[in-house]
Write a structure and sequence with these properties.
alpha/beta, Rossmann fold, Dihydrodipicolinate Reductase, domain 2, 2 domains, ten-stranded mixed beta sheet, seven-stranded parallel beta sheet, 12 helices, 32% helix
Length: 453
């Protein structure tokens, strides 16, 4: 089993890396920078022929680094299909400068402190290294402006900056998009109103949860909105991305013209000291959190709502964080797209056994609609074999074989596989960069609006 090597001294620089990828085995050499979030490890839950097993980790010493290495080691030691990563680690306060100076890899992965992340991204790109970043890449308008500079740097150097949008690979979301592409089934997306948006996406998350079969230990800084970001700029990134991706597939968006924030609000989740201890292992609130402690209770602004228009279509985004999910449940997702012929709704409540389920609910149920739906189902089945429809009182439930429910953790591997294809091609799809910029403008501007700025 490859050993985890801690390097405390300077190491010899390797030769300059190729600027182009061919798809050859082992040509992608990963750098993991300051891995403070478990998403950094999930990128490595699977092995990829194009990715070399040696991974260069640069981070300050501490629990964040130790937890990351422990997760990688669980992947290496698992009984079924074990990974074979060799983590070569430099730990020290000058980790960022050391990484840039040594350039041991050609693709940097970052998932951690979001307050620092945008600077990490910009400096890495300036050094000529590709970046695959966990969301969010910017948590306020100041970092949004820096992120635009980062994209400009990537373009100038001919390298890629991409964020990890796992929710595009959730099967019910993929099918919601698929059925929305049929003019006969879905019709056209309604303009909507503030009260009845054309598209709504809501998600509920929990501070206490299990990852890779073990109780997740959160870093204390995760509860500091100056480091993690408020909820309105964090998980909302996924939801804003899905609105763009589903409603305007492959369209190039211009945030200066296409995005209009109508209203936004934020509110806090209250965390007791005992709850904080359970998920962090710390018996006291760190000094940097005291600004948010009132009557011995931590107030975390992890919840947010955004109402906005995208290319004239009303959209509503809601993110809620609770401490823990009721037993037998977990994170949940609700989504509706309103078409002139049908609503496409994803529900994930008790009636669905807390598993996301897609429903097709016609505005007017007629024999012609049912015929069009069954005809289009054949096309969907050619792409997703095994998909079926089940009639109910409101329309149809989309039945999805269990093989497609591969879970959130597996989606990180799917994102990586796509990113490797983009590296080999030497470019992202034309719409990805402007739409990433539009996405982070939407969340950053919404935060300003919620704060009354």
């Amino acid at each position: 089993m490859p050993a985890v090597i801690i390097i405390a001294l300077a190491v010899t620089c390797t030769a300059d890396k190729k600027s182009q990828f061919t798809g050859a085995d082992g040509e992608v050499k990963l750098i993991t920078l300051d891995p403070g979030h478990f998403h950094a490890a999930l990128v490595q839950k699977s092995m990829y022929p194009q990715v070399h097993p040696d991974v260069f980790v640069y981070a300050p010493a501490g629990e964040d680094l130790n937890s990351h290495l422990a997760r990688i080691e669980t992947y290496n030691r698992r009984q079924e299909d074990p990974a074979s990563w060799n983590e070569i680690v430099y730990e020290g306060a000058d980790f960022l400068e050391k990484m840039i100076a040594e350039k041991k890899g050609n693709v940097m992965v970052t998932a951690g402190n979001n307050g620092k992340k945008t600077e990490y991204i910009k400096r890495t790109l300036d050094a000529g290294i590709h970046v695959l970043a966990d969301k969010p890449m910017a948590i306020d308008m100041k970092n949004f402006e820096l992120l635009k500079q980062a994209f400009a740097s990537a373009e100038q150097k001919g390298i890629l900056l991409y964020d990890i949008m796992t929710e595009r690979f959730e099967i019910t979301t993929q099918l919601q998009k698929e059925f929305s592409l049929s003019p006969e089934v879905f019709g056209t997306l309604e303009d909507g109103t503030l009260e009845t948006p054309s598209v709504t996406k809501e998600s509920v998350h929990h501070f206490a949860k299990f990852v890779s079969g073990a109780a997740l230990k959160r870093p204390a800084w995760f509860f500091d909105v100056e480091q993690q970001g408020e909820g309105i700029v964090d998980v909302t990134t996924h939801l804003v991305d899905l609105v763009q991706w589903e409603c305007f597939p492959e369209a190039v968006l211009d945030y200066t013209r296409d995005v209009e924030i109508l209203s936004a609000k934020r509110w806090a989740t209250k965390i007791s000291l005992e709850q904080f201890r359970q998920v962090t292992g710390l018996s006291v609130f760190p000094d940097y959190l005291l600004k948010d402690v009132h009557q011995d209770t931590l107030h975390v602004y992890s919840n947010g709502e955004i109402n906005y228009r995208l290319k004239g279509k009303h959209a509503k985004i809601v993110v809620v964080w609770n401490y823990a999910a009721p037993e037998g449940t977990g994170d949940t997702h609700y989504s509706v797209m309103r078409g002139s012929h049908a609503r496409l709704t994803i529900r994930q409540g008790a009636d669905q056994g807390y598993k996301p389920t897609l429903y097709i609910e016609p505005v007017d149920e007629t024999p012609a609609f049912e015929s069009a739906l069954n005809n289009y189902l054949v096309k969907v089945q050619s792409k997703y074999p095994g998909i079926e429809l089940k009639k109910n009182n409101a329309g149809w439930e989309v039945l999805v074989p269990e093989k497609y429910h591969n879970g959130h953790e597996a989606h990180f591997g799917q994102v990586m596989e796509h990113f490797l294809q983009y590296l080999t091609a030497g470019k992202l799809p034309e719409w990805e960069v402007p739409n990433m910029i539009a996405k982070y403008y939407t969340t950053a501007k919404a935060l300003e609006t919620a704060k009354g700025r």
